[in-house]
């Protein structure tokens, strides 16, 4: 009932949360569980970075129709191995100018060739309205 006992209440009993799940996973017996990355999770992370005062984390919501209960350990659990863990993997932009690296991943490979081949023989001077011809923007 309360966001902070006993002065503030949720708008709905059980808590206020988005109806759209950021991620879903099945939970069985005792063990470790992983929620796979979703575009919505990335949006949540960016939103928390932009608005840290609104970072209340994620809610683990079970399907109450199954008359079962699950317990998850919190970040205060004495055994560090049982605490929840958020892993974020990212790559920094390539710090080098590499001729032929069209996607900026710091290597010239088949992905760059694919990008180049999609526009093979496009002539923007002759056909400037071609979808592939985007005006340069000032940096
Ligand atoms: Ca590349």
SS summary, helix count: 2
Beta percentage is under 5%
Q: Name the ligand types.
A: calcium ion
The ordered H/E elements are EEHH
Helix percent band: 10-25%
Strand numbers in spatial order across the main sheet? 1-2
- The counted number of beta strands is 2
Largest sheet: 2 strands, antiparallel
Question: What would you report as the Rg, rounded to the nearest angstrom?
Answer: 24 Å
Coarse morphology: elongated
Mean pLDDT: 89
The total tally of domains equals: 2
Topology:
Layout: E1 2-4, E2 8-9, H1 39-50, H2 110-118
Antiparallel strand pairs: 1-2
In short:
This protein has 139 residues and is mainly alpha-helical.
Descriptive account of the structure:
β1 (2-4) and β2 (8-9) form a beta hairpin. The mean pLDDT is 89. The protein is mainly alpha-helical and 139 residues long. It has helices at 39-50, 110-118, and strands spanning 2-4, 8-9. It folds into 2 domains: 1-90, no CATH class; 95-139, no CATH class. It is elongated, with a radius of gyration of 24 Å. It contains 2 helices and 2 strands, in the order ββαα. It has a two-stranded antiparallel sheet. Residues 101, 103, 105, 107-109, 111-112 line the site of calcium ion.
């Amino acid at each position: 009932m309360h966001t902070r006992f006993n002065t503030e209440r949720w708008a709905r009993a059980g808590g206020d949360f988005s109806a759209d799940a950021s991620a879903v996973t099945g939970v069985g017996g005792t063990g470790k569980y992983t929620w796979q990355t979703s575009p919505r999770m990335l949006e949540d992370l960016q939103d928390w970075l932009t608005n840290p005062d609104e970072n209340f984390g994620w809610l683990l919501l079970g399907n109450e129709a199954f008359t079962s209960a699950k317990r998850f350990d919190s970040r205060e659990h004495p055994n560090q191995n049982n605490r929840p863990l958020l892993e974020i993997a990212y790559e920094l932009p390539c710090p080098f100018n590499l001729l032929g690296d069209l996607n900026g991943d710091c290597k010239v490979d088949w992905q760059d060739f694919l990008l180049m081949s999609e526009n093979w023989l496009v002539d923007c001077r002759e056909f400037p309205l071609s979808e592939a011809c985007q005006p340069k923007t000032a940096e």
